Amino acid sequence: MTQGHNAPRIRSLTREEAEARAALVEVERYDIEVDMRGLFEGEVLQSTSTVRFRCRQPGAATFVDCAADVRSATLNGRELDLDSIEGGRIPLSDLQAENTLVVAAAQSDTGSGAGILRTVDPSDKLVYVWTSFEADDARRAWACFDQPDLKAPHAFTVLAHETWTVTSNGAPSSVEDAADGGRRWTFPDTPKLSTYVVVVNAGPFHELRQERDGYSLGLYCRQSLKQYLERDAGELFDVTAAGLAFFGDRFGQPFPQERYDQVFVPNMGGAMENWGCVTWTDSVLYRSTPTYGQRAGVAAVLLHEMAHMWFGDLVTMRWWDDLWLNEAFASWASTFAAVNATEYTDGWATFLAGLKLTGYQMDMGPASHPIRGDVPDVEQAMANFDAITYVKGESVLKQLVAYVGEDAFVEGLRSYFREHAWGNTRLADLMTAVGAAAGRDLTDWTTAWFDRSGTDTLVLRGTDLQAFGPDGQDPRPHHLRIGAYRRSPDGQGLEPAGSVQVETAGVRTPVEGLPEGADLYLVNDQDLTFAAVRTDEDSLRTMLEAAGSLPEPVSRALAVTTAWDMLLKGELSTDELLTCVLGVLGTERSPGVVEPFLALALRAAEQWSPLPAVPSQLARLATVAAGLAEDPEHRTPALRTLAASATEPAHFELLSRAAEDNTDLAWRMLVRRAALGEYDAAAVEALLARDADPDARVRALGVTAARPEESAKAEVWAEIWEKRSIPAGQPLFGLAQCFWRPTQHDLLLPWTHRYLDEVGTLAGGGGMLAAGSLVRSTMPTTADEAWLERARAMAAEPDQNPSLRSALLTGADTLARVLRARG
Predict the structure, then answer these.
(1) What is the DSSP string of 240-281?
(2) How many angstroms separate the CA atoms of 537 and 471, rounded?
(3) pLDDT at 410 over 80
(4) What are the residue boundaries of the ERAP1-like C-terminal domain, all occurrences included (predicted)?
(5) Residue 765's pLDDT band (boundaries 50, 70, 90)?
(6) Cα 49–Cα 66–Cα 168 angle in degrees, nearest 5
(7) How do residues 574-599 score in pLDDT, each as one tens digit?
(8) Phi and psi, residue 622, nearest 5°
(9) Longest Cα separation, the chain
(10) Rounded distance between C-alpha atoms, residue 786 and residue 788, angstroms
């Protein structure tokens, strides 16, 4: 992804600069005219930003952010010297008590994803433009004080091509023909918002609307995907309405505007919580009927971004050291809402079986950091956009709910939102509100959980629960449950034998009331805390053998994830892990955990097994997947796993029958055959001809990527790294999975080093969130010691971008563990 011509010179705002500017300046409002007509056939977005602001010390100086080509700038009617602009900053001197700044600018870097992205749909050549400004990319579109604690109303006027629809943070107040061509969209004032959560999108969108409970709900996508949006619209509207009602009730105030839009856009890596107008990747409009797990994932993203309307948009943390708690909160609130207000009632088990593993894995590696870490500048904040913030953060908030009680936590949130609406806060404000509602002083708890990195280990020895902090530190306080289970009289399963709630204090906590004579003591049953857990040898053996007969999905997920943690730490072999997870899959019926378990088993069999054992381990998985495919509820994820692990003619015969009317499965089967050296060019062309997906070419490239041939790898590599032609998000990640086949280790080793060559060319500045996504999506899944040494050396370079450093450290740590597991 190319960087803008001015990207290398754009400076990253420091915390000290932000504090000084916030002490000096209060922004009254933004009136921003955006001309997007030049994007219909070209690459230039033009803007005129009028900023009205007060200065608390008349005569003082500061700067405004504008990382675009400034055409003119006036302060209180006085022309500013454009030659003084440096690092994306316009100096402002001799400020008055009341000031008006007008800046006209143009941005031609609209193809890199640095705040603005113009995309041409390859299927029909229609153009779509979206903006996404977290953390500090609003300055790339127009002049603004681009920091989260200088909130102000924004009023947008947007000029766009006459065929385009424009979306922003609310409903337009008027749409009129412009005298010089196109149409003028006028939007009323937003509430007081941070600069990173305003938005302007444009294009010939397909639009669907429904009225629900007094809200006008909108869904938008590109024209080539309208059939998929229409297929999914019913559930999207249902979950949106349920979420608005649930959060409005639990948070003590309804979402305060009628309009709530969601815009599915091309070539976006994730989703963004713009006030009243969420943008997210259109790769979640799946081109085949989505599975339960995919639908649950979409609901989770939808509710996550919606939760930000309260925590992040309504009330905003002052600086990025606290502000990343937004993501932890939104993730926790998403699961909380899914379990209580949607059909996805196994949400906590799904979270544990899938995402939580990424939090544990990162927290045990060299890129671990506190949830609230030192963030001296915005560039460092972007490095914290990771599994610690999202996943560990969600887990820690779940632990806080267990610690203080759900009622107290919810009452604390209501007080927090009520007191700080449209303002900025620090973490202490939230914890004070929760602590007051619970009648507990959370000062030490906050320090232990938010200001320290690493994972505690909890070990049950007899009737003592021992807690060990990371790296010899004191352990944190934990509120958890220990479940006791006995083998059933027929010896075929496990039955509950009681449970006990424990609140740890220090390194040793006596457990009172622990049932005697159990065959399995499951530490952290119900998964209330974030900790590695271990139990006695007899319990471990029972857990590995009989995890599938535990009565609750979250308990079964805990057993499997405990085994996975032991694999990562060299305490368990891949074969033992697979025996556990495949045993669970043999009887598992909760769709919320079947899919993540299948994915985990495939990863273990293909990547973590000793290379000579991979075919036999995949065969084990294929047998289980073929059995699961007989259950209609699990058929699709089971067939997809079978397509990745098929080893026998019978497997391919089953897949061929199922793929006759299923293009997704047909692509997966072609990938598997290509990886086995059975590439069929005619079959690829035939499938490409009948696939209605406008991004089907990426699926065809996936078949090429899987081939064990140098020329095939080179062809795909050029598309990813040289042409940058692969859409961000799932398309890129899926293609990379096809490329990195662990069994092609010798062929791929030179390409792993090519990967490091490419990473080394990525510049800092704008688009680093997109670049970081590229780095993580294409991370190799196999390596050697030379690669590990080189990756660590690159990470250690003193001027390395923090986001890239984190990705390299995490990738190297994971692959070092993989190599150890392979022996």
Answers:
(1) HHHHHHHHHHHTTS--SSSEEEEEEETT-SSEE--TTEEEEE
(2) 24
(3) yes
(4) 520-816
(5) very low
(6) 50
(7) 999 999 999 999 999 999 999 999 99
(8) -60, -40
(9) 88
(10) 5
**Six-digit token pair at 717?**
């590599």
> Of residues 305, 394, 595, 606, which has the active-site annotation?
305
Question: What's the whole-number mean pLDDT along residues 318-342?
Answer: 93
CA 807/CA 274 separation, integer angstroms = 26
Q: d(Cα 355, Cα 343) in Å, to the nearest integer?
A: 19
* Amino acid at the residue 48: T
CA torsion sign, 598 to 601 to 605 to 608?
A: positive
In tens, the pLDDT along 122-140 reads 999 999 999 999 999 999 9
Is residue 211 part of the annotated active site? The answer reads no
Whole-model pTM?
Answer: 0.95
Among positive and negative, which fits the CA dihedral 331, 332, 338, 344?
Answer: positive
Q: How does DSSP assign 297-344, residue by residue?
A: HHHHHHHHHHHTTTBTTTBEESSHHHHTHHHHHHHHHHHHHHHHHSS-
Mean pLDDT computed over every residue of the chain: 95
Q: Is 763 helix (H, G, I), strand (E, B) or coil?
A: coil
Over the Cα atoms of the chain, what is R_g?
Answer: 27
Which domains does the chain possess?
7-307 (2.60.40.1730), 316-450 (1.10.390.10)
**Cα distances (Å, whole numbers) of residue 797 to 203, 314, 376, 815:** 42, 39, 18, 20
Buried b (16+ CB within 10 A) or exposed e, 446-473: bebbbebbebbbbbbeeeebbbbbbeee
**Mean pLDDT, to the nearest integer, of 667-680?**
97
